[in-house]
UniProtKB/TrEMBL annotation:
SUPFAM superfamilies, per the entry: PLP-dependent transferases (SSF53383)
Listed name of the protein: threonine-phosphate decarboxylase
Function: Decarboxylates L-threonine-O-3-phosphate to yield (R)-1-amino-2-propanol O-2-phosphate, the precursor for the linkage between the nucleotide loop and the corrin ring in cobalamin.
Pathways per UniProt: Cofactor biosynthesis; adenosylcobalamin biosynthesis
EC class name: lyase
PANTHER family named among the record's database cross-references: HISTIDINOL-PHOSPHATE AMINOTRANSFERASE-RELATED, THREONINE-PHOSPHATE DECARBOXYLASE
Annotated segments matching region Disordered: 151-176
Keyword Iron-sulfur applies: no
UniProt-listed InterPro entries: Aminotransferase_I/II_large, CobD, PyrdxlP-dep_Trfase, PyrdxlP-dep_Trfase_major, PyrdxlP-dep_Trfase_small
GO BP terms, alphabetized: cobalamin biosynthetic process
Entry keyword set: Cobalamin biosynthesis, Lyase, Pyridoxal phosphate
Lyase keyword on record: yes
Entry EC number(s): 4.1.1.81
Length: 393
């Protein structure tokens, strides 16, 4: 059991590795519920665009081309100086960690494992802020105490603030066992894998305390386009310690393209750009930013699909006797009771041609849940029948 868990793929969409593990042929037909991508598929015009853009591959990407940042800024109501285009959401995560190399990080968990990996890469110590209960709620008071760094006694501090930097140099006199204030807080909204979403007011409260403690709040909004709730972009105007991370590959079903972006104050964006690897974003990805954002029809069809499946699908799964938290994303989390039951259900679904996502590498879930993407009505019906069959068995 232990080695089996240790070798479990760390991301969704790993068909080949899982089919081989369960002794199934590599061409075994699967419906992929493990990767949280838009089931509409890439925009219809993309194939022709790529054919016409082949000449872009013969030259280096133009490092001075600010058209992609301008397109994002126009859509988000920001200035291009607040935008950094990245090689997928993953590079944005690693740059956010690099900004605080060697510091102390807090990660709201269970969540995407890449935050911890990025922090480890840049020498940050990591502490977990555990979401509580079946609704996966954050203890905001505990989060504020962790940001302060106080353990047993009050902390006195003097602070120096500048307009250009969000960091505050802090001198502390503390009781024994106190820690330094957190350099950075990572959280995901909507959260992967729970699908839950911290309210706007909670983020404002965390930002206010973070400004006092010199803590940057990094919010991964990779799935915000699938949510009914608003993005946090308006807070950038008043919160210099806020960094937002976004992905375009999930919304437009382009995981192989690697295209994301980071939003922050101009000073933080400049520092992140200085840390970014040269040529990290390829010419095709850069050229696609503006046409993707201009495709209003695709976004409208995505909203229509979500309105059709998200209310009904989790409720239909609950009706079969499974516990499913409320979700504000394009996926749902299913409680199997324990890890052995989850693994058995995973294998049952796989052999019926349905690939789900394990939760062994999500701290606090301990493998007893399965994450399932929301897909089109036909695929969802197949999944419901399989879950019903498991219950009958």
């Amino acid at each position: 059991m232990t080695s089996w868990i240790a070798n479990w793929p760390a991301h969704g969409g790993r068909r080949a590795a899982l089919l081989a593990r369960f002794g199934l042929p590599s061409d075994y037909p699967l419906i992929d519920f493990s990767a949280n991508l838009n089931p509409l598929g890439p925009p219809a015009w993309l194939s022709d665009w790529l054919t016409g853009a082949a000449d872009r591959l013969a030259v280096y990407p133009n490092p001075d081309d600010d058209a992609p940042a301008q397109a994002i800024a126009a859509q988000q109501g920001l200035t291009p100086e607040q935008v950094l285009v990245t090689n997928g959401g993953a590079e944005a995560i690693y740059l956010a960690a690099a900004l605080h190399a060697g510091g102390r990080a807090l990660v709201v968990e269970p969540t995407f494992s890449e935050y911890r990996l990025a922090c480890a890469h840049y020498g940050l110590s990591v502490e977990s802020l555990a979401l509580r209960g079946e609704a996966f709620e954050l203890d905001v008071d505990a989060a504020e105490r962790a940001m302060e760094g106080a353990v047993e006694s009050a902390v006195e501090r003097t602070e120096e603030r500048t307009e250009e930097r969000t960091e505050e140099r802090t001198e502390e006199r503390t009781g024994e066992g106190a820690r330094a204030p957190a350099s950075v807080l990572f959280l995901c909204r909507p959260n992967n894998p729970t699908g839950t979403l911290l309210p706007f007011e909670t983020i404002e409260r965390l930002l206010a305390r973070g400004f006092e403690t010199g803590t940057t709040v990094v919010v991964d909004e990779a799935f915000i386009d699938f949510s009914d709730e608003g993005a946090l972009t308006p807070l950038l105007a008043s919160a210099p310690n806020l960094v937002l991370l976004r992905s375009l590959t999930k919304l437009y079903d382009l995981p192989g393209l690697r295209l994301g972006y980071l939003l922050a104050s101009p000073s933080l964006v400049r520092r992140a750009r200085d840390l970014q690897m040269p040529w990290s974003v390829n010419a095709l990805a850069l050229g696609l930013v503006a046409p993707l954002l201009a495709d209003a029809d695709y976004l409208s069809r995505t909203r229509t699909w979500l309105a059709d499946v998200r209310p009904g699908m989790p409720e239909a799964v609950r009706a079969l006797g499974y516990a499913v938290p409320a979700t504000q994303a394009n996926f749902m989390l299913l409680d199997c009771g324990d890890a052995a039951e989850a693994e058995a259900l995973f294998a049952f679904l796989l052999r019926r041609g349905l690939l789900s996502r394990h939760t062994h590498n999500f701290p606090g879930l301990d493998g007893r849940w399965l994450r399932l993407a929301l897909r089109d009505s036909a695929d969802n019906a197949v999944l419901l029948e399989a879950l019903a069959a498991w219950r009958r068995a």
